[in-house]
Amino acid sequence: MDAHVWMGSREIQKENYTERLSPYDGRVVSRAAVCDASDAKAALVLAHKASAMAKKAPLHQRCDWLRDVASKLRQQREEFARVLCDEVGKPITYARIEVDRCIETILLSAETMRTMHGETINTDAMSSGRRAHAYWRREPAGVVVAITPFNFPLNLVAHKLAPALVAGNAVVLKPTPEAPLCAYKLAKLFIESPYAVADALSVVYGDAEVGSVLVGSDIPRVISFTGSVGVGEIIAKSAGIKKVGLELGGNAATYIDTSADLEYAASRCAIGAFVNSGQVCISLQRIYVDSTIYDDFAQKMAEATAKLVVGSPYEEETFLGPLINDEAAQRAMSWVQSAITEGARALTPPQCEGRIFYPCVMADVTESMKIVCEEVFAPIVSLVRVDGIDDAMIRMNNSPYGLQFSIFTNNLAHATRAIDELEAGGIVINDMPTLRFDIQPYGGVKLSGVGREGPRFAIEEFTEIKSIVIL
Hints:
By secondary structure, the chain is α/β, with parallel strands linked by helices. It contains 15 helices and 25 strands.
């Protein structure tokens, strides 16, 4: 199926289309319209006009809009899961999970907006004040530009569209080129809903040219981007005076304490390191293990990894499918080989078949190696010996990233230290740092970005506070 341009409520067919090939078997699985700067400008102008209507749409209509989309998405669950499987090679079982999470994100956004409100202000609280009727309320920011990545091309779109639209904004979406049909089909549910605000959502495709127009324009009031640090830095420099939310890279780490249940920790770390082929911003990349239990944990980690099913994303039992492209697979192998040359050991054999890179557990890793200090975005995890929690805390924080960290421990004092001392947007106790509940605030510190997602927190990002005084 072709992914056409949505110019507001109109579906536009273009002269030129690009083909999206399956990362698993190379088949043509979708085609996306080729857009340029003029398309981006037209979408922004249309969104600017639509934002006035979106702001006036009653809240019950906007909430019904989201609930209608969620209902239709549930009816088309298998179809959407198959598109995810086709375009990004996500194993079908996990593709269904992403569809389910997308439904929940949309519903959470409606429920959250329904109960969000401002509050009254005691203007006579200070001697310089006096009695007045005063309060504040939230109003839509206006036009939101949403730019989304390939690794969760459905749910991460929902994390931007649903809060922005239910808050009364108009949105221009530029989805990842790797999953154009996924975004097109979700946008179609929003646009063709009987509760939709006319022209409140547009979808354009493209890379740098289209993105630079969307980001640099004076029309949008909010830019919401999920992607690489490099592109995030460009956006931050070129956006100008507007709200900018950046959910960027990560280098997630965990510490295995001597008091931890090693069997449980290893099983969860294997999931956290290799789910979605390691293509997750909070994929577990660094495991710091107390030296007294290092060998025991390393063995259990290798055993847990060996149990994971690797293969066709269309098979129900498959846990790990292909990486997104050849470049990603080649980079992963080169990083592993480089680490081995520098003295690391592969506890599971480095193996690559086409774009499928088998999960790789690396031992005896030092922090000068690329697979530890840079974001891998592949199914590779590194085990590093440490001398207790003091050493672990220092090493975990010694990173330019700070998205999510975790600790496995049954020592309350150590858990408390992790919460207090680890420099990250999220801390998980006794599970993988890859754990994310969509209802929670999600975002990082340092190079991992600015701003937070999660329905309530995204709505706050997509709205402005207006203060009112009546005398």
